[in-house]
């Protein structure tokens, strides 16, 4: 009869499970598919080297995230401000009427002041469109989110390895999965 919850008969009440477990290096009551105490076989030097790699990558990911955050803010701000200025410049003549025309120095449709006003409004509209399209094309928001998630996962991994809550082999595999999900990072 097997111990409850143990389909292999390797539970604490099974003599064959304990004997087989002890021969394979597992302690009494430990199933064969469980890992022994994390990193019992790995050296402190290996753990330290792995932690240095994780910390360096976490720093690089954080720096890339900060750069993406600055780019995200700059493109968004440029788009909003340029759109607002273009709107004000094109709405001003409609709202200001003849008073604005006199304030600009002339009332004729061929005067330079109107051309300058329309030219500046066009440039602002162009800047807003370029900033919005660059933001979308470069997928700044998605890349920033991936960097932030990756940095958090790397920090968790670092803590698990530091406090020996993860076997080094498992931590290395998780590190590979995290790196695969990160956006391309600039070279140092």
Question: Care to give the gist of this entry?
Answer:
The protein is mainly α and 188 residues long.
Helices and strands, with pairings:
Layout: H1 15-23, H2 44-104, H3 112-137, H4 140-162, H5 168-181
**Would you report the number of β strands?**
0
What's the number of helices?
5
Structural class: mainly alpha
Radius of gyration: 32 Å
Roughly how much helix do the residues carry, as a percent range?
over 70%
Distance between the termini: 60 Å
Question: How does the overall form come out from the CA principal axes?
Answer: rod-shaped
Q: Major sheet: size, sense and barrel closure?
A: none
Q: Overall mean pLDDT score?
A: 79
Strand content: under 5%
Listing every helix as H and every strand as E from the N terminus to the C terminus, the arrangement reads HHHHH
Q: Report the uncertain regions.
A: 1-40
What tags apply to this protein structure?
about 190 residues, disordered N terminus, mainly alpha, 5 helices
Describe the structure.
- This protein is mostly helical and 188 residues long.
- It has helices at 15-23, 44-104, 112-137, 140-162, 168-181.
- The protein is rod-shaped and about 85 Å long.
- The two termini are 60 Å apart.
- The model is unreliable at 1-40 (pLDDT under 50).
């Amino acid at each position: 009869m097997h111990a409850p919850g143990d389909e292999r008969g390797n539970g604490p009440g099974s003599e064959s499970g304990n004997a087989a477990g002890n021969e394979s290096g597992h302690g009494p009551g430990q199933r064969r598919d469980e890992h022994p105490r994390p990193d019992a076989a790995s050296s402190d030097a290996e753990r330290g080297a792995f932690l240095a790699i994780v910390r360096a990558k976490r720093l690089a990911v954080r720096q890339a995230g900060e750069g993406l955050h600055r780019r995200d803010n700059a493109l968004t701000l440029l788009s909003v401000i340029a759109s607002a200025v273009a709107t004000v410049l094109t709405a001003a003549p409609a709202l200001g009427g003849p008073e604005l025309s006199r304030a600009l120095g002339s009332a004729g449709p061929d005067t330079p002041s109107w051309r300058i006003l329309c030219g500046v409004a066009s440039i602002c509209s162009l800047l807003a469109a370029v900033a919005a399209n660059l933001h979308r094309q470069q997928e700044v928001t998605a890349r920033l989110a991936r960097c932030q998630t990756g940095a958090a996962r790397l920090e968790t991994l670092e803590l698990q390895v530091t406090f020996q809550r993860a076997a080094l082999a498992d931590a290395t595999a998780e590190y590979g999965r995290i790196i695969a999900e990160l956006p391309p990072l600039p070279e140092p």
